[in-house]
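Two quick folds needed for the group meeting slides. Do the first one here.
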Amino acid sequence: MEGIVADLADGVQAQTGRLQLHREVFDLTTLARGTALQFDESSSHRRVNFEPAPQLLINGDRARLERVIFNLLSNACKYSPSDSTIRVIVEERENVVALRVEDEGIGIAPEDLGRVFQPFSRLEQGRAMAAGTGLGLSSARTIIEAHGGIIRLMSQPQHGTVVEVRLPREYSQTNTLSEDDRKTE
């Protein structure tokens, strides 16, 4: 319930230009590993594998980014079959830290990819599989963009989904992803 309220509050704050991040320097690798471990321990029918990664420091809102990772892993677990593997990868690419969550789930049709980031949007096939509010990816996008980053989703029906988040290594008011980084979408 707290997550739903936080997702709603972030959406309203972003729309009114009042979303304030509580920034601190922390290791995104440690945060992602800890969140993945929680899911691996609680999901007896799915394996959540965290790929080994070096320490990657960012300046961001730890609580909000933890909620983003939680939402991505929650979606991966909800929409993946039992006995499947979900991979969490954190790596450095030039001036960005990339976080990827890869699943073996039901996937998303190309014509539906744009809808998944809209608030309260849930795809029909997903509704049949699991409960949800349709706020997770919308909130994740709001938080990632507030950090000067980007989130993208690659998927095919019956072939799983990859969600990638890219965040600047060193955040400042003018340090967002360059136009060249955005073109690789």
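Then this one, please, same format:
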Amino acid sequence: MSPLYKWPFWKRAVFTNAIAAVGVYIGFAQSDVRLSISLKVHIAVFTIAFMNLMFLVIGPGIYAQKTEGRVAPALWHVMYEALSERPLIIVLVILQLLGTSRATATAIAFMQATASDYVRSLPTAHSMSLRLMGASVLMAGVAVLWLLGAIGLWRSYSWGWWLALVLNGLDAAVTAVLQMLKPTEFLLDMLAVTAVVLLLLRPVRTGFRKRQTAVERVGD
């Protein structure tokens, strides 16, 4: 059997995410600590993201150095170098993962609400359940978009920059309108505002423009 790091990337990605998801599920199932759905989803998303970092980014780098006969540096040293090279992108990826976990938690909450006693007791229980299920599917789709934004930013794809800008821009705009309608409550999504500001910074924009230009040259 060939080593894990000799597998095609897509096989390693599927294997890593499957193992990480199963591990998170078993961990929650065996834990006696009761956590909210939101906290569970946050833990799951960032645990799986960390596993992807270790097995799809850090691990292959160390393995490549070992196969070349060089002395591989310490694991945490390699991780620090990988994360410190692009600090703004790392922050943006974390913000997109937060958006992923929030949208996922909302989707699960809508789905759970369809089976609640309150919804079942309503005269329009059936139609309300259908609406909640539709909202759950919609939020699940939004969660996928947030996740794609994180992946696109990490891989330095120009579409990742645009997707992240659209998602965070819409989020910031909607919450800004709600903030103006209810000035007595703090409703502005500062995470989305922070992401928009970071995305529009010149070093970030220039980095993605260079990437797009390089891809276009290769295509020519």
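Slide caption for protein two: Residues 42 and 156 are 24 Å apart (CA to CA).
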